[in-house]
Amino acid sequence: MNDQDYITFEAYISKTLSEEEIIGFEVRLEGDQDFKQAFITYKELHSFLGHKFENEAASKAFKDNLGTISKSYFKTENKSKNTARFAPWKYAIAASVIAILGFFLFNNFSDPNYSDFSNHEHISLTIRGGQAAAIKTAEIAFNAKDYSEADAAFKSLLDQDSTNTEYQYYRAISNIELDNFEEAEALLGKLQAGNSVYQYKAIWYLALSKLKQEDYRSCITLLNAIPEEAEDYKSAQKLLKKLD
Amino acid sequence: MAEKKVHEDQKYIEGLLQNNSFIIKAIYDKFVPKVINYIKLNSGNVDSAQDVIQETLITIYNQAKDKKLQLSCPFDAYFFLLCKRKWLNELKKSNSKEVTINESVLSKHDSALELADETELFEGKQLLFNQMFQQLGTACKDLLKTTFKIKSMEEVAKQLGVTYAYARKKKSLCIGKLTKLVQASPKYNRLYN
């Protein structure tokens, strides 16, 4: 879509098109799938932004209130558990609870490691004409955890398309897996400084790279740089807690 | 959805929308114990249950506010299903083990499954939209924030010190940029197909 298309979307939504223009717009919507798809997304974003900013105060009030109610509910929930009288069969449960607790404590006290947190999902790369076979090779190798093969495949893809952030990102992960930290961190550093969709993901993997090298101090600094909106924010907070 | 009968439990949705403490407390008293129980039986604990429940209620609130959520099944079935899925997804993430979600027990509430699917899709989109919004430049972010907070574009133009036409054009282009970012995301196809 070009700029004019988006300007037309906005005019259509805000009902400032003439009758003739509306007819033209709707005809195109029917006949042009890409146009339609972009318009649907545009409209949803429009409504999303409206909700996000118009109701900011109400949403916050709701979340705060919910937090308070939840806290007080779970406080009494725990209390009623503690004062309940013990029936003999409950000892069996208690024993397993202690066993589980022991497991959790053990987990909490041992240092967290890279593999606890590096759960890359199966990837599915965008297929581009001309490189389809090479892309498939990279994808299969990565999903099969054959990272040296994946690295080689991503390297050759990048030789032809050096600015592709998707390849850079997965090549970086492959290199962390292979313990080629320098190569990985150079790629991630570039992604972090750019503004692709991998910008925050890159910080998360930089942190994981440091974790794998047991450089906990750098890991913590990086984790703290992951903003709340990032997909990995929660995992980052979890890891921070463990590193404390 | 309009043709479906709205379930009497819609009162819980309205209560959430109005931030009605009485109703929110009722939801905790009536429906939450079952969720806690389920999570505890499936390798979770009370703390994880607390988070899952809170996040689920926020999602329901957001969807109700944004999309006029109409309940076509008992609240219990819908809420339990959402919490259960969220928890199983958490487990999947942390163990990277395959977790199969068996929903056959719930088949008597087909409309609950349908509604839960809708809510999950909504949540996925919200997440993606928020992430992509953060990728916009500061100028676009500020302009969009101002535009949607102050509804009158004339007022917006005045506040930003630009002409009305320019402010409107900029708004379209910024949402356009966001549209492009969203469409380019690897998650886009999963959410829109």
Short overview:
The complex is a heterodimer of chains A (244) and B (193). Chain A has helices at residues 3-13, 19-31, 33-54, 56-83, 88-109, 114-117, 132-143, 147-160, 165-177, 181-193, 199-212, 216-224, 233-243.
The mean pLDDT of chain B is 86
Q: What is the radius of gyration of chain B?
A: 20 Å
Name the beta content range of chain A: under 5%
Structural class by sheet pairing and helices of chain B: mainly alpha
Largest interface, per-chain counts?
Answer: A-B, 53 and 55 residues
**Mean pLDDT of chain A, as a whole number?**
85
Major sheet characteristics of chain B: none
Supply the number of helical segments of chain B: 9
Structural class of chain A: mainly alpha
Assign an overall shape of chain A: flat
Order of H and E elements of chain A? HHHHHHHHHHHHH
Radius of gyration of chain A: 25 Å
Low-confidence stretches of chain A: none
Order of helices and strands of chain B: HHHHHHHHH
Description of the molecule:
- The complex is a heterodimer of chains A (244) and B (193).
- With 244 residues, chain A is mainly α.
- Chain A has helices at 3-13, 19-31, 33-54, 56-83, 88-109, 114-117, 132-143, 147-160, 165-177, 181-193, 199-212, 216-224, 233-243.
- By secondary structure, chain B is mostly helical.
- Chain B has 9 helices and no strands.
- The model of chain B has no long low-confidence stretch (mean pLDDT 86).
- Classes of the chains: A mainly alpha (244), B mainly alpha (193).
- The interface between A and B is large, with 53 and 55 residues.
Keywords:
heterodimer; A: 244 residues; mainly alpha; 0% strand; flat; B: 193 residues; elongated
Layout of strands and helices, then pairs:
The complex is a heterodimer of chains A (244) and B (193).
Chain A (H helix, E strand, L loop, with lengths): L2 H11 L5 H13 L1 H22 L1 H28 L4 H22 L4 H4 L14 H12 L3 H14 L4 H13 L3 H13 L5 H14 L3 H9 L8 H11 L1
Chain B lengths: L9 H8 L3 H21 L4 H22 L7 H21 L14 H26 L2 H12 L3 H8 L3 H21 L3 H5 L1
Helix pairs in contact in B: 1-2, 1-3, 2-3, 2-4, 3-4, 4-5, 6-8, 7-8
